[in-house]
Design a protein that fits this description.
Elements (H helix, E strand, L loop, with lengths): L10 E11 L4 E3 L9 E6 L7 E5 L2 E2 L7 E6 L4 E6 L8 E9 L2 E12 L7 H10 L7
Length: 137
Amino acid sequence: MYVCLPVTSAVKEVKVNVTSVVGDTVTLPCQSSVNSDVDWRHKDTPTSGVYYVYTNGVVYDIYQQRFSVNRRPRQGQYGLVISPLELNDSGLYICIGNRGISNESIVYQLTVIEGAYSLSFTYLIIEIVSTGNIVHN
């Protein structure tokens, strides 16, 4: 006699707030299993749909001019690079990675503002590791 059990996958989600300035470059880091690609998605307003930015190694046409993915498959790193930032780039950016039996996602709430404010990449990494949120003093 065989018993079939449903296979469930664990889902882990991390949320991070990021603020940067028009004209700057921002890199939103994403980690996945070694040699396992990710999906990047974008939701620009609370009532809009979710659009694919990157999947299966390809950046979609509407994003190709200013968006790229810094792929390092051997390290499982797939950072979304947006440059130069525009005000309408604000919104949610979701990276969904597959780590074997568990799916993990990281959700960035990107706010693009005009002005002299700047966000350093080092500060972003430190805050993700220590608190999961970016806090500006």
